[in-house]
Amino acid sequence: MKIDAPVRGQDKHGSGAFGAPRGSRLHNGVDIACYAGSAVFSVADGEVTKIGYPYSPSNKKKGHLRYVQVTDTASNDARYFYVQPCVKVGDQVSDGQVIGITQGLLKIYPGIIDHFHFEVLRDGKRINPKEYLPYLRG
To answer: How many angstroms separate the Cα of 112 from the Cα of each of 43, 62, 67?
Structure first.
């Protein structure tokens, strides 16, 4: 599945690029710009291995935000944050299959560009996900 939406550029909340500074840490994925309510597609065949909350569900401001993790056939974990799942743990998904719908971030972070965060873990370490996003290569 070719995803060709732009990476969230610089705004008052920072940059959506991989490795961009975030205070004392670096950004661990890429933020794909989109409209709230956009479909999110799996970038590989795999199994839904986790559906979670990036923040505590009791957090009044951000507790509703969700993420979906798909583990591909090479055991890499692709994570899609700020996505309302439309799959469940144990589902087998195909490259290009809709796995969720983006959640809006504008009420939480005024002035941010709406997006979903995409990251990949290989052997438990976050890698630059550009190999999964062909338009970022080169």
So the answer is: 25, 15, 19
